[in-house]
């Protein structure tokens, strides 16, 4: 099935991926805010290795910067549903963990294919549910707990 298989491209990705290192931590984030996730690897014996994602853009995306008011300030633990007009639904968790002594970008990243706008539902750790309607894609949106963007609603 096309689009569901991995392909070995290490040799094409540049010499940094071919160099053996003692990797001890890995963080994922979009350090240049272009919508493509980048990777930082900590080398226990050398300088950190930034793997800047320069692949061609293959779809639209949205990143949510959460700010809790009743929940924790960073919105960690919040569940984020991103829904397209075509009926596709994506679930993401606001988290920074995942690797040894590393913290990834706390922003919630979601690829949304061809969608130009999305609805975003945030289920905050406090129990608050915020619904943000018709959010344009290919941007970073700041979502504050209890404050609605667009024509959304609180529940
Ligand atoms: Ca990037």
From TrEMBL:
Family matches, as InterPro entries: Crtac1 (IPR027039), Integrin_alpha_N (IPR028994), UnbV_ASPIC (IPR011519)
Start and end residues of each ASPIC/UnbV domain: 75-141
Name of the molecule in the record: ASPIC and UnbV
Native species: Chthonomonas calidirosea (strain DSM 23976 / ICMP 18418 / T49)
Taxon lineage: Bacteria, Bacillati, Armatimonadota, Chthonomonadia, Chthonomonadales
